[in-house]
């Protein structure tokens, strides 16, 4: 798998299912290192590294959700292995995961076994007002409001200067994102959200039910937008159970067609 776009943490079992993880706005692949530690060796986490951050910080960030999804979809299609995989996306990453799954399904490619969509409401004809911010100050204020373990970094002007280009591009991508109506997916979905998220209500998150013909599970955790930081063990349990369920269902379907 393309090492420029995907980061792997640790060595999984030979038959481990891959979990392709999509970071939040301003986030990087390393955000998924703690989850990877809890899931291995049964699940192989491959976190997407968007341009413009960490070891790709000298590259121009991509301010377009569709373009990011297209690149990831193409990279996955280029894979020669038939190893099963699932998607996990948090916040902005949930949109990119969803759009990537749409592209793969439209192209007749092997789809993910399950989508885990976290801390993001289902898209619709209207943009979220939380995505449309007028300037850098508003972006930084929004990041502070959402919290998370990395928010303390915003107290360091040098670090702010390093992360601001990626944050600026990511929020520009969110502001420009326009959902195009289409056929629902055929992939099972697990929706995860915090009960005190200041920008995503439980009702908005549950709206993802309408975006797949398969079953949808909604899991609500105590916490805000970055509830995962405090509930990581619980999230890992949900993911592990979800991928095992999806694998068992696929095995049953394959047996029915033998």
Number of separate strands = 7
- What characterizes the major β-sheet? 7 strands, mixed
What would you report as the Rg, rounded to the nearest angstrom?
17 Å
Beta-strand content estimate: 5-15%
Structure, explained:
This is Thioesterase II family protein. Residues 20-243 form the Thioesterase TesA-like domain. With 258 residues, the chain is α/β, with parallel strands linked by helices. 37% of the residues lie in helices and 14% in strands. Strands 1-3-2-4-5-6-7 form a seven-stranded mixed sheet, sandwiched between helices. Helix 1 (33-39) links the parallel strand 2 (17-22) and strand 3 (43-48). The mean pLDDT is 91.
Short description:
The protein has helices at residues 33-39, 65-77, 92-106, 136-146, 157-176, 202-206, 232-256, and strands spanning 6-8, 17-22, 43-48, 85-90, 115-118, 189-194, 216-221. The protein has 258 residues and is of the alpha/beta class.
How would you describe this structure in keywords?
258 residues, alpha/beta, seven-stranded mixed beta sheet, globular
How are the secondary structure elements laid out?
Layout (H helix, E strand, L loop, with lengths): L5 E3 L8 E6 L10 H7 L3 E6 L16 H13 L7 E6 L1 H15 L8 E4 L17 H11 L10 H20 L12 E6 L7 H5 L9 E6 L10 H25 L2
Parallel strand pairs: 2-3, 2-4, 4-5, 5-6, 6-7
Antiparallel strand pairs: 1-3
């Amino acid at each position: 798998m393309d090492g420029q776009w995907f980061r792997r943490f640790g060595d999984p079992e030979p038959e481990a299912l891959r979990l392709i993880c999509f970071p939040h706005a301003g986030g990087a692949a390393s955000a998924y290192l703690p989850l990877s530690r809890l899931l291995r060796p049964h699940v192989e986490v491959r976190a997407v590294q968007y341009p413009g951050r960490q070891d790709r910080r000298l590259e121009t960030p991509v301010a377009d959700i569709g373009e990011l999804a297209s690149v990831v979809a193409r990279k996955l299609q280029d894979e020669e292995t038939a190893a099963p995989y699932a998607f996990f996306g948090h916040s902005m990453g949930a949109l990119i995961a969803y759009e990537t799954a749409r592209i793969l399904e439209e192209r007749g490619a092997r789809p993910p076994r399950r989508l885990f969509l976290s801390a993001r409401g289902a898209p619709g004809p209207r943009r979220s007002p939380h995505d449309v911010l007028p300037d850098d100050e508003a972006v930084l204020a929004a990041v502070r409001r959402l919290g998370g373990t990395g928010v303390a970094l915003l107290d360091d002007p040098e670090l702010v200067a390093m992360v601001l280009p990626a944050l600026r591009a990511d929020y520009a991508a969110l502001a420009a994102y326009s959902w195009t109506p289409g056929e629902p997916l055929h992939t099972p979905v697990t929706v995860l959200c915090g009960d005190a998220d200041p920008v995503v209500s439980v009702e908005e998150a549950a709206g993802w039910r309408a975006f797949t013909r398969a079953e949808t599970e909604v899991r609500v955790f105590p916490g805000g937008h970055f509830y995962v930081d405090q509930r990581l063990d619980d999230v890992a349990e949900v993911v592990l159970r979800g991928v095992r369920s999806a694998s068992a269902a696929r095995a049953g379907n394959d047996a029915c067609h033998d």
